[in-house]
Automatic annotation (TrEMBL), chains A, B:
Taxonomy, superkingdom: Bacteria
SUPFAM superfamilies assigned to the protein according to its UniProt record, in alphabetical order: Homeodomain-like (SSF46689), Tetracyclin repressor-like, C-terminal domain (SSF48498)
InterPro entries: Homeodomain-like_sf, HTH-type_TetR-like_transc_reg, HTH_TetR, Tet_transcr_reg_TetR-rel_C_sf, TetR_C_16
Key words of the record: DNA-binding
Molecular function per GO: DNA-binding transcription factor activity; transcription cis-regulatory region binding
Ranges where the HTH tetR-type domain occurs: 26-86
DNA-binding region: 49-68
Protein name: TetR/AcrR family transcriptional regulator
Record flagged with keyword rRNA-binding: no
Species of the source: Streptomyces hoynatensis
Length: 209, 209
DNA sequence: TTCGAAAGTCAACAAGCGTTGATATCGTGG
DNA sequence: CCACGATATCAACGCTTGTTGACTTTCGAA
């Protein structure tokens, strides 16, 4: 079950501000970014402080500003991530819903989702984070589903519906930890969410479409 | 931190000022609560300031503290609301999903949802808001569905799944305004979300439940 | 009319925030 | 060796926040 090419834990696509900084500071920059991901994912945008990120990374707060410009820019760097979706074109059509649910929720279940968690946690109060969710839909979810259903004229509407089910599940289970969703058996959850997504992808759309 | 008068004070009340305040201040208290609802719903917990609420209500910031104790207590008063769900016992079983979707999303669509919006907007960063979502599930969603499906042993799991679909839709359409969900035709949305909820309520549950 | 409590005003505190600039230290090329 | 730019440290700035206490005004009851 491959989820991404670079299984390398922390990919070093450190969004580099030009070349004003030599390679000697790479460890510090990486430590800052890692600490920022954890803090933003856990506390959201407002409650995350530059000072706390710096302390977690073991650097001076001024270094954070030096390398990332501002708190807003640091957040942008935090949520900027590749996170490709599995190729669904070779999956049998009846299985796509389940596979999509697994691809989306698996990252959360395994805890390899700091950027997504930061974006989702911060989205309701930080507009830039909401735009990041929109971008993730435009650049990953929608294209992947379009490739799987190339001749469906309503695929955009369907993809939006898929996202409501997927993000709703992630929010309740992993961010808000609402019971019984948070403690629900994972396979049962995948089964139900996958079937719901499958329905959004294939069932007839009602009303004026 | 604490705002209690320690020795004599029996207990500090959470939401409604007991009768320590005369009826002459009722308009001000109501204006404060209304302004707080709007601000919390729009900006979330952290970005909402006592000063802004006071300005919107046309009162002095100190009045907000006087009548509601603290910012956290003001938020509690904001999200404490009845919002009963329609009685679903007389609805045909095949229609319950659609009716539930309408009951849940209709309030949002009509904008009569300030307390829910405040709770959902603030939930990812303010734990008390997340607990308010949990309470709403425990006290309204789950009982309503239990009455509609009294003999289903998995109704709690099913109700949780229903909530993932319902809250996911509300979040994307009304809070984050993610396209194409935000601009989707309302009846089309109800049809799809209602059918998904219906599926969660009636389809067999997979795996070990 | 008088008086006391309720209602409202005002200024300030202490703490925390993002951010900045001056300064010290390191590491390497000449 | 020295020098110079990159790297790191430090202290502070200006601002906003929740919250508080002293003060004045309002108003109905005695």
């Amino acid at each position: 079950m491959q989820h991404s090419e670079n299984a390398q834990g922390v990919e070093d696509v450190v969004w580099a501000p030009p070349r004003r900084f030599g390679p000697r500071s790479a460890p510090a920059r990486r430590a800052i970014l890692e600490a920022a991901r954890a803090r933003f994912a856990e506390d959201g945008y407002e409650k995350t402080t530059i000072r706390a990120v710096a302390a977690d990374a073991g650097v001076d707060p001024a270094m954070v500003m030096r390398y990332y410009g501002s708190k807003a820019d640091l957040f942008d760097a935090t949520v900027r991530v590749a996170s490709d979706l599995e190729d669904l074109t070779k999956v049998p059509r009846e299985e796509i819903g389940r596979r999509f649910a697994r691809a989306m929720l698996g990252r959360w279940e395994r805890g390899e989702n700091k950027p997504e968690a930061a974006a989702l946690r911060a989205a309701p109060t930080h507009p830039e984070a909401a735009r990041s969710v929109q971008r993730s839909f435009n650049e990953h979810v929608l294209p992947a589903l379009r490739r799987a259903f190339p001749d469906d004229p309503d695929i955009e509407t369907r993809a939006g519906l898929v996202l409501t089910q997927g993000i709703g599940t992630a929010l309740l289970r992993y961010v808000l930890e609402i019971e019984p969703v948070a403690s629900m058996d994972y396979e049962t959850l995948i089964e139900a969410v996958g079937a719901s997504i499958q329905r959004h992808l294939t069932a007839p759309l009602g009303s004026a479409a």
